[in-house]
Amino acid sequence: MYSEEDLIPISSLQHILFCERQYALIHIEQVWEENRFTAEGKVLHERVDVERHESRRLFRQEYGMAVRSLERGLIGKCDLVEIYLAPGEIVAQAVPIEFKRGRNKEEDVDRVQLCAQAFCLEEMFGITVADGQLYYLQEHRRTTVNLGGELRAKTMELIARIQQLQSSGITPPAIYQKRKCDRCSLLEVCMPKSAGSGGKEVDRFVRSQVRAARGEPSQS
Known about the structure:
Layout: E1 8-9, H1 12-18, H2 20-27, H3 36-48, E2 52-55, E3 60-69, E4 74-86, E5 90-100, H4 109-125, E6 131-136, E7 141-146, H5 149-168, H6 178-181, H7 187-190, H8 192-197, H9 199-214
Parallel strand pairs: 1-4, 5-6
Antiparallel strand pairs: 2-3, 3-4, 4-5, 6-7
Helix pairs in contact: 1-2, 1-4, 1-5, 4-5
């Protein structure tokens, strides 16, 4: 069982799957910058991350529900959880629903977050959460996600990797990937072209400046 101080944010799973360096900059070095994509996502979540509940005939809806798992080492908040009750007000089923900007993605960046929410709900209510749902703003519909063995294993691997990075306190080196990096809000902070693939050129420049300061001849 993990202590409260050791719990990792569920949102960090998206960051580490997208880019380990992005994860470290945000969660180890505490760096954050907004861009259009993060701002749109923030506005979307402000609409739903208000704690309230609504009762329906067959289920109850809990918005902005705080969740955690001491067994898995997770803490976070669900945009929406639909809770189905058995007689005696016993929770029989819980379905986490996450709201996202854009469209459905081939990558698992959103699905692992949903799976982590399921881990928390299972521990909190003593049930099995087999499915969750993602709602994409541009598609205006829910997509059902099976929270099966392969996704669960991948999510647990990411949790273990986060715990490893947190223990080391080391930020991984940058690797420039145009499709990812040019859309990242931390592009200017990360500097992947110079700190990553261009790292050797930067090292050579620094060494040349040191040699010049010492009055040593330059090397070709």
